[in-house]
Amino acid sequence: xxxxxxxxxxxRILEVARRALERSxxxxxxxxxxxxxxxxxxxxxxxxxxxxxxxxxxxLDVDRLIDSVRDRLARASALEAxxxxxxxxxxxxxxxxxxxxxxxxxxRQSITEQTYGPVIAAITEMLDAGKRDGSIRxxxxxxxxxxxxxxxxxxxxxxxDRSPRMLGVILDGLRARP
Length: 178
Description:
Helices cover 76% and strands 0% of the residues. It is mainly alpha-helical. Helix 1 packs across helix 4 (50-67), helix 6 (78-98) packs antiparallel against helix 7 (105-133) and helix 7 packs across helix 8. The protein is elongated, with a radius of gyration of 18 Å. The protein starts with a helix and ends with a helix.
């Protein structure tokens, strides 16, 4: 059981690291500790390596995104929920890809293995909602959708504005036809 103050420190470190790493992948761990108001020892106790911190930040973002599916489906159509969800996922994938040099091949494989199943389950939930309401084609496959989404985060730096148009094409392909 983690003490409440230790959990608060860990959560604060993760939030500060998330914002810092979004701005620059070169932010030092000492800068993150200072911005989080903790000593370097506290940061290293929770995250012994830079890679451990990067992976924890990415996992936190993906977990939050996965947890948002039901709320998104309650507020919007399945296609619109999928659009917003995918836009966020692509942002997280870009961050992870941009930090790829900070991750070992084992770290990249580990985070992919940890998040693949939950991401597929989230996509499945949104596709199933659309299949039930008739807005998404019956043969839409979550693994195919994830492969297509992968093309969105691979756009070259400076070409990110292509992603919304490309996502529109993907979503149009998912629409059920009369």
